[in-house]
Amino acid sequence: MFLPINFKKRDWVMDDLMDRLGFYFWVIIVGFVGGVLSIAGGNAKVVSDGKAIINFFVGTISSTFICWVAYEAAFYFTEKGSFSLAVGGFFAWRGTAWVSAVIDKAIDKKIDNLSDNNYDYPPRPPRDYDIGDEK
Predict the structure, then answer these.
(1) How far apart are CA 111 and CA 90, in angstroms?
(2) 87, 68 in Cβ contact below 8 A?
(3) What are the pLDDT digits (tens) for 90-115?
(4) Which pTM does this prediction carry?
(5) Which among 20, 30, 78, 80 has the fewest CB atoms less than 10 Å away?
(6) pLDDT band, residue 1 (cuts 50/70/90)
(7) DSSP code, position 117
(8) CB neighbours of 97 closer than 8 A, spacing ≥ 6?
(9) Taking the alpha carbons of 121, 123, 126, 129 in that order, is the dihedral positive or negative?
C-alpha cells in the first residue's frame, strides 16, 4: 500500500517545533559548537587513553549544559535573548573546567574573608553603657 507523504504537514510540524523551542534550539546549537571549539582549541584536557570519542561527547554535552545555565541566568537578569545567548556561548567555549575553577576560587575567597575578622570599624558599645555623666 502506497502512502503519499504530506510535505505541508511535515513543514508545519517542524515550524511548530521551532516555535516551541525558540531560543532553546539556538542554545543547544551554540553550546554544542562552543564545546567543539573548546576541545579543538585546546581548552580541555587531552586524555589519550583510547576514550577520545567518549570524552568528546561528554565535553560537548557538558558545554551545552553550561551554555543553557548561563543563558538562563543572563536572561533572568537582562531579559534579552541575543545577549543571553552570547553569554551562554562564551561559557560553553570556556568549558566546564574553567567554570568550576572560577566558582571554586570565588568560594575559597569568600571562606577566607569570613574567617578573617579584620574589620575597619571599631565595635559599637552596648546600649546600656553608663558613661557616668548622669547624676
Answers:
(1) 27
(2) no
(3) 988 888 788 888 888 888 888 877 76
(4) 0.62
(5) 20
(6) very low
(7) -
(8) 43, 44, 45
(9) negative
